[in-house]
């Protein structure tokens, strides 16, 4: 009888600890994700793009050039994390930009 009571007490204690850990993890998750904002853009929206060093057009150097270009209109969304932008042909880079490399205009 005493062993069953002890086992029952330990299982209740384990469940209580598990519930507290889940609550703590949820509060940590909401606090950590409170500053993250992955905005979904629609076709036709104007966005700015951020260019990595490897994506600069030929003849441009990335050291002194502005890395933010735009605004450009979104033509389509070929995947969940990519946008096809209306880039001019003179840029000679791929018009598909990943979602985390694009950001909305400050006023919109």
SSE layout:
Elements: H1 2-32, E1 46-50, E2 68-79, E3 82-85, E4 96-98, E5 102-104
Antiparallel strand pairs: 1-2, 1-5, 2-3, 3-4
How would you portray this structure in words?
With 108 residues, the chain is of the alpha+beta class. The protein has 1 helix and 5 strands; from the N terminus they run H-E-E-E-E-E. The chain has one helix spanning 2-32; strands at 46-50, 68-79, 82-85, 96-98, 102-104. It has a 5-stranded antiparallel β-sheet with strand order 4-3-2-1-5, with no helix packed on it. It is rod-shaped, with a radius of gyration of 25 Å. The model has no long low-confidence stretch (mean pLDDT 83). It comes from Cucumis melo var. makuwa.
For this entry, give a set of tags.
five-stranded antiparallel beta sheet; alpha+beta; 108 residues; 2 domains; 29% helix
What class do helices, strands and sheet pairing give? alpha+beta
Q: Percent range for helical residues?
A: 25-40%
How much of the sequence is in beta strands?
25-35%
CA(first)-CA(last) distance: 69 Å
Number of alpha- plus pi-helical segments? 1
The biggest sheet amounts to: 5 strands, antiparallel
- Adjacency order of strands in the biggest sheet: 4-3-2-1-5
Contiguous low-pLDDT stretches (5 residues minimum) are none
Question: What is the general shape?
Answer: rod-shaped
How many beta strands in the DSSP annotation? 5
Order of helices and strands: HEEEEE
Number of domains: 2
Radius of gyration of CA atoms, rounded to a whole number: 25 Å
Would you tell me the overall average pLDDT? Answer: 83
Protein name: Tf2-1-like SH3-like domain-containing protein
Pfam family, one: SH3_Tf2-1
Domain Tf2-1-like SH3-like: 44-95
InterPro entries: SH3_Tf2-1
């Amino acid at each position: 009888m005493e062993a069953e009571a002890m086992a029952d007490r330990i299982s209740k204690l384990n469940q209580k600890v598990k519930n507290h850990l889940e609550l703590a993890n949820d509060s940590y998750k909401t606090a950590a994700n409170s500053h993250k904002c992955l905005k979904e853009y629609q076709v036709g929206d104007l966005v700015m793009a951020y260019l990595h060093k490897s994506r600069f057009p030929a003849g441009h150097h990335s050291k002194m050039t502005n890395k933010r270009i735009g605004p450009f209109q979104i033509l389509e969304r070929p995947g969940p994390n990519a946008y096809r932008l209306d880039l001019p042909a003179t840029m000679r880079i791929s018009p598909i930009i990943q979602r985390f490399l694009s950001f909305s205009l400050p006023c919109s």
